[in-house]
Each structure stands twice: as structure tokens, then as C-alpha cells.
Queue: 2 jobs
Job 1
Amino acid sequence: MTAINAVTDLSMDGDIAVITLNSPPVNALSQAVREGLEASFKQTLADPKVKGVVLICEGKTFVAGADIREFGKPRKPPSTKDFYKLLDASTKPVVAAIHGTALGGGLELSMMCHYRVAVPSARCGLPEVNIGILPGGGGTQALPRIVGVERALEMMTTGRHVPAKEAHELGIFDALAPEGQLRAFAVDFTRKLIAENKPIKRVRDLNDKIDEARKHPEVFDKFRKANARRLRNMTAPENIIKCVEAAVALPFDDGLKRETELSQELHSGPQAPAMRHSFFAEREAAKIPDVPDTTEVLPVNSVGIIGAGTMGGGIAMNFANVGIPVKIIETKKEALERGLSVIRKNYERTAQRGGLTMDEVEKRMKLISGSLELGDLKDVDLIIEAIFERMDVKKDVFAKLDAVAKPGAILATNTSGLNIDEIASATKRPESVIGLHFFSPANVMKLLEVVRADHTSKAIINTSMKLAKKIGKVAALVGVCPGFVGNRILRQRQVEAQNLVLEGAMPWDVDRVLYNFGFPMGPFAMSDLAGLDIGWVKENSKGETLRDVLCEMDRRGQKTGAGYYDYDENRNAKPSPVTEKIIKDFMAKKGVNGRHISDEEILERCLYPMINEGVQILADRKAIRSSDIDVIWQYGYGFPHYRGGIMYYGDQIGPAKVLAKMKEFQAQMGDRFKPSPLLEKIVAEGKRFADI
Ligand code: 3H9
């Protein structure tokens, strides 16, 4: 074995050269890796003793892409596109041997090689769109030549990780190797290519899939139209589509040039840095300063859930999905059966859409059992309480759990805002109590707020953060306060949305502004979807708020066919004259003369109080860093990723402007706009929210 540089080795297996990259954690294409690759390709391709080359990686993965940490800085040569020239000129076969993930620049590098073999557990994809850029290492020109235009557009605009079996069927991987035998398989594969005199397969020469699209140029506009809603406001997908148009219309090298231009456009725009921030924010959120990675992780091999309602059922699915058995406890047989049947229906719906086989549905359902006895949770490692939000009832449940659960079991509550210290006080083991706040629908939403109470042990915090990753969630650690971090900030927006409506804006005006900003829906559409009657009690309703009046009229949202909006039979929303009249009556009663409210004012009044609350949350030490708040709002509330998160957005506007506007609104409308003292302080010190 010869070391080419610190991250690249070269060894010979007979007449096959094996280039091995070893650059933890993910073998990203840092400058050192690019230099190592260039030197080893040059050396092996020029060496007459070498008949073929295998490129393989050490560690947990093949190359997972360009080194994102180098973005935004001047890039030094060689670039990955330089490898095209080397490999295209080669008369010896070069085979990429893939395990883990071949992503972005990693997959591009492998597509420059002449063949690709992979183990069945490998995945591949071009996920650049998720960081606001495009596959700029030739991927937009190479992939359509292998998988066809439509599939390439789908892969590159979703950034999906394609499993090995599918990649093999699509022709991305030429062969699948037995698990654990990748190197030997790849060397044999290369030897066989040579023995059988197989031609060198250069992606630039593949034309049949491109020819197909030349006959159907309408495919691009069809794709744009079909995906308009999903891709709205984002700049990267449109540039990706343009690159693929170039792949179809231009010779390969001209297509590469066009790709570089369109890639540079994205790198210098605002969305790429925002999405890069999101990428690192998500990974940073997993790090807890006083809970090092070396902290004990408790085994979680079984889970108990109290409550078979929508939340309990959704939470249960997360664990069954990763093979952890779950026992759901209910007080009544009918409620338990109803809950289990909803879970089954959810799985079956996924199966109908092709997301699961019926075998997998049955396997997962077998992992979920029900019981009416709390005592049946005596052996489980983690218990999550998911019943309705009443402190007295939760305390009662936790006192009972204390008597039943085994020593060391994690006792979690899914409360969305109650005081977890008080809940923990019902037990004799507050160190075992933690909040695991899932978001609805719990089997879909990616966010998990892990809520640290006063006495929660570090082992339980570490275990919860690791467990979140295992079940596919993005976790952020927050402190106990009403609404925790996400809902505490949401409250600001909800209050202001209501105020705007009582001053002259209509619900659909507020919704339109926030939708256009990039949220999946506005606050009123969201209330209609969730149900206006959540937390509404008929007996106590006195028609004092807009919501009271709507609920009293049985306009309780989408489920009743009307709420803030009117709905047709397909649940399409229409502005409602009924709601408009109620609002106008309210305003008349209060003597308010409605005025036109600009879109700018709507946006500022909804968003700036949220940013201000975020600052106060940091002052109260209820979130560790401002980027954790970004993660929470992106994954729990649909804040657009391409804007980097609510606090990052605040930094782009500038803390000084946020403060000035808050003061202006405070003077006009009162102390609900009172700036946080910390906001005043960071503006005085010329700092950013990210510095807090
Ligand atoms: C690209 O390729 C552009 C090209 O088209 C242009 C021409 C070449 N760079 O996620 P994890 C770090 S754009 C730098 O917790 P997992 C990450 O920050 C790129 N660092 O592990 C973390 O560091 P730390 C296209 C990276 O096992 C550590 O690795 N590729 C990169 O859950 C572990 O990460 C992508 O977008 C990187 N590319 O998941 C793939 N990737 O420990 C992005 C990771 O200090 N990466 N790190 O916090 C991923 O999707 C996941 O990291 C992966 C592993 C699935 C690979």
C-alpha cells in the first residue's frame, strides 16, 4: 500500500490498482481528497502494469459529496470536472465500489468512472437541491443520460436517496456486490471486464435516453407545471431543469459549461447560504454542550405509550417503523380498538401508494399491541404519555407510572406546553422524566422537541437525542416554559394574525402573505385544517372571539365543511362571505373603522414578534442557540428552508431593523410589541442573533 497523500492510498491487487479514500466523517471531496484523486488517477492510468482501477472508500460511506464547509470560500483546483478529462481519456476501466451513500459530488464522481458496483445497503442521490445548489460536478449532464430525463428531474429536484436495488434497476449501478465483500467483488468485476474485453462505458457517449427526450421537448414544461407548488419560490430546481434542457439540446461539453454558469448563479444567490445554514443547524442541534457524546446511552428495546388517540397512534408508528415493539395503553376497549385500526389504516394507505408492501404492514402491526392495564408496562424501557392536556390527569398518570415502571425506565410526556417539572414532581424519580414533544401528524412530522426538566438526567437526554435520530426525527433540546420553544413563538404569530383581521385584513389576506413568503399554509387555513374547536368548550363559549362565533355556528373547520373559509366537497377553500360578515360585525361593535393593511405590514407584524420572542427564549435560556430555533421552525412549522429559519431570516433583515419596527409598532399598538431587552442589547453591541 502506498500513501498518495494523507487521505488517499494506492495498492495493487495483481494488475488491478485499488485507490482508497479515507477522509472521515463522510469522505467529502475536500481539496485534499481531490488532490489525492487526481494524483492517483494520473499515476494508475499512466502505469503500464495497471490494467484496471477500482475506487473505494474506507469508513462508513463512499464519497457523500463536495465538502460543504468549503462553500462560500474561493475553491482551489483540481475541480471534480477535471477528472472527466482524465477518465474520459483512459483506455483502462475504472470501477467505483460503493457502500454507505454516494451523494452529490460522490455520485457524480462515480458516474465519471466507467462502471459502478455497490452493496445492497448502499444508497445514492443528487441532494444538492437541499442546500440550494445544483449538481455542479457534471451530474445534471450525466444522470439524464443514464436514467432518462423525467427520472433525473425527479431525483435532482427532490434530492431523494435512491436505494441500491432501485439504482441497479435504473442502471445507475451496474452490479450489486454481496454485503461485506465489496472490494473483492469490485476487483473481480474489473478483471472480468478486461478478460471479456468489455468496452469502456463513458457517460458522455450514452445517448439513447437523451434522444428519447429530444422527441418530447414538452416534458420540461409538463414537469414544471406538475411540480409548481412543491418547488415554488426556490431557485435551485429551475436551474436544474435548465441544465437538463441543456443536456438534451447541447453536446456534452457545452452542457457542462452551461451547468457551471447555472451553478455559479445559485452559489452567489441568497438561498444557497440559507440552506447551508439549515444543513449545519440541523447537525449542530444534536450537540448539547453539557451532555457530551460519550454520555451513557440507555437501551430502548421496548416502548409503552399511554393513549391511543391521534398522537399516541402516530408516535407508536415511529417505533414500529424501526422494529421496536410498542404497547399502547388505553382505559376503554373501544378507544384502544379504534386507535389500533387507525394505525392499520395509515399503514395500508402508505401501502396503496406503494410506500410499503402488505408484508411490511403486517410486520409493523405485529410490533404494536394494546392493553387496558398500566401494569403491562412494567418491563418497557421507555414510556410516553400522550393523553389530553390537563395537569391533574397527567400528574395522576405519572404517579401511577412511578409505581409500575421498572427502575431506570424513561418516563416521557408528550405535552405540548405544560410544566414538566410539575409533572415530574408526581414521581419519586424526577431524574427519569423528560418531555418528548412530537408534532402532529406524529408519524410524518420530522421535529421532536426534547424538553429538559430541572432534574432530567444527562443519560436520559442523550438517549432521547440519539433515539430521535434512530426514528428519523430531527431533535432540538429545549427548556420548560409555556409552549416550550415552537408553540411559544407560534403564539406570537397567532395573536397578531387575529389582531390584523380585526383591523381590516381578511383571513385570506394574512394567509396569502404568509403562503407567498413560503409557509405551506397561512394561520387561518392551518386552524381550519386542525379544527377550530381544539381547546374550545361549547358550554363556556360566549361569542367573544371570532373563533367562538364560528364554532357556535358549527363552522369548526375543514371537517365540518366550513371554518374561516368555505370548502367544497373536495376540500378546496374559498373566502367566506359569512366569515367576512362576522368580522365586520365584530369591528362595528368595537367601533373599529377597517383600514387597508399592506402586505408588508402583515408580514412584519406576523414575523417580527416571533423573532423578538425567539430572542427572549434565548435570554431565558430555553433554547441552546438561535440556530436550534431555526431547526424547530423549519421542521415543526414549515418555515421555508430556503430562508434559513426564523432567526437566520432575522439576521438577514438585521436586528436593528427588527428592533426599530418593534418600537414603531409598540408606539402605535402597545406593549405586545415590547422589544426583548436582549434585542436592545445585541443591537447596541452591533451583534447578530447567531452570536447569542
Ligand atoms: C455537492 O456535492 C456539490 C457537487 O455537485 C459539486 C461538485 C463536486 N461536507 O449527517 P451526519 C458532516 S454538495 C462536509 O450527522 P449521518 C456533518 O456536518 C453536497 N461535511 O451523519 C457532520 O459533521 P459533524 C452533496 C459533511 O450518518 C458529519 O459529517 N451532498 C458533509 O446521519 C456527519 O454527518 C450532500 O448534500 C459534506 N458533504 O448522515 C450530503 N456531509 O459531526 C450531505 C456530512 O461535525 N450529507 N458532513 O456535525 C448527508 O446527507 C449526511 O451527512 C449523510 C450521513 C447521509 C452523508
Job 2
Amino acid sequence: MYLPRIAILISGTGSNMEVILKACITGELPAEVSFVGSDNINAKGLDTASALGAQTRVFFYKRDGRKAAEEAISMAVRETETDWIILAGFMKVLSPEFVRKFPDKIINIHPAMLPSFPGAHGIRDAWEAKADHTGVTVHIVDEEVDHGRILAQERVDILPEDTLETLEERIHRVEHRIYKETLIKHFLENPISIEDREE
Ligand code: GRF
């Protein structure tokens, strides 16, 4: 059995990436981070990743367009023999063509109970809808946005005393736990075989 190699894609703070990367470093999450990539050269998470010793890459969507940027991601994935692509606050929608190249190999975290509140503002949308609960979803990425087989979901109640900020804080706390736990379980249940490596 091989140690799975994962690429983590981020666009901003990278707090989920940081938890995952640290868990790989300590061995709590049996995987190796092949690189941390971002569409945003100024993403704070890139500095965090470098400081922790990870390779970082930037994919220039604005300059090169989506097609070329996605080709660069594919190339980086192949070059580094990456097995799984882990989206952690990556704000670009991956094209169906890209997703089809890596079937069942892209995983995302979304800060709501999908199918409720998909999109870029999952937490705020649940808050503004005055929902009594929201949550966190970890799922396989398919060709639709914020859609695909759900690997884990956890409910987070919206309390009368909550502000948007306290709700965000509680959701992020759940995300940091559930993403790591789900990846540990998923990699254990879906080991990388010699055939995967020889593809
Ligand atoms: C998280 O809430 C994640 O679910 C969403 O974007 C946010 C990223 O936060 N897709 P961070 O960059 O991991 O701190």
C-alpha cells in the first residue's frame, strides 16, 4: 500500500489546509502533501504552507484563462504523482472537463448542509435565510457545483444569541475536525494500489 499523495487547493486563509497539512506532517493523517496550490498569489495560506515546508504553486486564472490554468493544475497533479485533489476554500469552479479527468478523486468541503445553501456564501446565505440550523458537508466533486456523493455531514444549530461571526467560528471549528476525520477514513477505505500508480 502506498501513502496517498494529496494536492490541496486554496484561495485565501487556508485554515482547513493548515489543519490537513499539519495532520500529514504529524502522521495523524496518513498522506503526503504533494503541493498546495492557489489561484490567488496573495493567498495567506500559501505563506502558511511554505512555512510548514510544503511546495506551493500558483495557477494564473486571470492572466491565462480557466482552460490554461486548469491544464497547469492537471500537469502539476500528474508531475507530482498526486492521487487526490483536496479543495479547501478554492473559489474557482472546476470545469466538467477537468472533473472528468479525475473521477472520484476530487474532494471538497462546503460550509452548509448540502443540498441546502450551495454557492460561494453558504454560511451567510443560511444566516440571512434565518434557518434554524446549517452545517458542514464533505463531498466528492462531480460535474455540478457543490454537488456529488456526500462523505460526511454535520449539523450546526443557529442559536438565538449567534451573530454571523460566532456562527462562522463554530462552523470553521466543525470543518477543521470533520475534514481531517473524513479524509483519514476515506483514504483508509480507498487505498492507492500499484495500478493507480502505474496509470
Ligand atoms: C471554508 O468555510 C470552506 O468550507 C469554504 O471556504 C472556507 C475556506 O476557509 N469552501 P479556509 O481558507 O480554509 O480558512
